[in-house]
Amino acid sequence: MRRLIFAVALTACWTLPAVAQETPGRDLLMFPVGAMAEPQSVAGALGGGFWNPATVAPDPAFRLRIGVSALNTPIDQGVSAQILAASGSVGRGWGVGITVARAAIIDLVRTESDPQTIGNEIAYNTTVYSIAAARRWRGAAIGVSLRARNGQADQVHRSDVALDAGLLIARTLGTPVRLAMSTFLLSPQGSAREAAEYFASADLPLLRRDSTLLLRGGVAASHLDRRGGEVFPFATLDYRQLSLNGGLSRSSDHGVATMRARLGFGLRYARYTVGVAREESGTGLGASYQFLLTSVFR
Fold first, then answer.
1. Who's near 185: CB < 8 A, 6+ residues apart?
2. The pTM is what?
3. Which residues contact 258 (CB under 8 A, 6 or more apart)?
4. Which residue, 293, 230, 289, 225, is CA-closest to 257?
């Protein structure tokens, strides 16, 4: 029933001049596809630099990484998202990455005055093509990303471009604090065409034991134009081939606050990494799940 109401509202809202210039599907990218229960500002496990282009800076452990991730929400929301990513070193301290991400609402039916469906399903989706480049410089990584986004809402098709930047500082002012910042979908034409999002985080080691165990803790924040923001205290644990990410998010969307727990688990074996993440909806709709698989080539 919720999606029937959404279908009616969606069809109506795209007839209003106030939003006629926006690119459809921006709200589908509020789901953190490819980020395994970690802040988007440091989400680098997938590769490609989708959330922060600075994460494609060269890693001495490998020269090429390819990854895929898929996200699904409860049936009442019906959101499905996938992302394919690749990144690697091109020499002289530079790294590049490419990503293709798509998100859609499935089974969005068309109705009139009663629940009986008519015609074809309503299409509501978006696809983002990104290319990123980053360079390491004095203990920091700086990156930029060029994006093209297409969106469809029923018969409405629009597209836009964005230019984003990211920064990762491993040690800040001689301290063990790691800082990360990035933008997402920052449009040259301004927020009338694309709602930009801004990410930032700070964390530091809480426990370290040789090279086998590392526990980090910190806090992340984000802000989405015209919508709201999020505060996300988080922790990450790496122990040999295992990794565990988690935290409690408090987000505000148009003044409505929700709390959501996130938990992600990863296992590294040979050159492969498999990850699974779970995130509560915070609205009683059930949890969303995400799967990740990457492979590196040395």
1. 26, 29, 128, 147, 149, 162, 164, 194, 195, 196, 197
2. 0.88
3. 250, 251, 281, 282, 283
4. 230
Q: How many residues would you count in the chain?
A: 298
Domain ranges of the chain: 2-297
- Residue matched to tokens 């929400």: 73
Is 38 exposed, middle or buried (CB count within 10 Å of its CB: 0-12, 13-18, 19+)?
buried
Instruction: Specify whether the CB–CB gap between 129 and 30 falls below 8 A.
Output: no
- The Cα 230–Cα 116 span in angstroms is 38
As a whole number of angstroms, the distance between CA 205 and CA 223 comes to 26
Tell me the C-alpha distance between 239 and 118, whole Å.
54
Q: Which CATH superfamily is domain 2-297 in?
A: monomeric porin ompg (2.40.160.40)
Identify the three-state secondary structure at position 166.
strand
Residue 123 DSSP code: P
String of DSSP letters for 1-36: -HHHHHHHHHHHHTTSGGGTTSPTTGGGGGS-TT--
Mean pLDDT in order along the chain per 10 residues (298 residues): 43 43 88 94 94 94 94 90 96 93 85 58 93 92 97 92 96 94 91 87 95 95 93 97 96 88 95 96 84 95
Per-residue buried b or exposed e for 56-81, using 16+ beta carbons within 10 Å of the residue's own CB: bbbbeebeebbbbbbbbbeeebbbbb
Which residue type occupies 5?
A: I
**pLDDT of 20:** 42
